[in-house]
Amino acid sequence: MKKMLTGAVVGALVAVSTAGTAEAAPAFVPPTAAGCGGTGYAPPGGAWGAVSNSSCGLAGSPGLKIRYTYTSRSDASPIHASAKHYTTAEGSNPGAEQWTEFGAGTRGDSGLLPWGNSLAMKSIKFQSINVLGAIVDWS
What whole-number distance in Å separates Cα of residue 51 and Cα of residue 54? Predict the structure, then answer.
């Protein structure tokens, strides 16, 4: 935006441009982290679908616990999930990989699960509870 100032100096008209001067910068907004989730499939008839891996890795640290959530794209298809985590949140060894089942609806939340000092991809798989299959978004 160009602004012009005018004024009289010893009988002469002087034009002064403010072009190039700094205006107040917008407030800084830090970037948000990616969801690091994905999309999975719950096949019809109760079978488990293929494992869906996260779109990014998760670098853990001693004491870290994580949460999985999911939402079925179909309100007519309740979903059951099984999510990967590790057996020990404390210390430098995250323990063995473990899968925990949770959820029984069109939305689910695993609660906090131990991840610990692990560097891995979050992974989850889904099962349809009725005869309908569903695409499932998760994080």
Answer: 10
Mean pLDDT of 47-66: 94
From the list 36, 109, 105, the residue with the least C-alpha distance to 76 is: 105
Q: What is the dihedral of CA 94, 98, 104, 105, to 10 degrees?
A: 60
Q: How many helices (H) and strands (E) does the chain have?
A: 0, 12
Q: 45 by DSSP, 3-state: which? A: helix
Residue 47 has pLDDT above 60, yes or no: yes
Tell me the β-bridge partners of 8.
13
Q: pLDDT-based confidence at 48, cuts 50/70/90?
A: very high
* CA–CA distance, 14 with 101 (Å, rounded to integer): 77
Residue pair 82/124 in contact by the 8 Å Cβ criterion: yes
Classify residue 56 by its DSSP letter. E
pTM score of the predicted model: 0.73
Give the whole-angstrom CA distance, residue 66 versus residue 30: 22
Q: Which fold has domain 38-138?
A: Jelly Rolls (2.60.120)
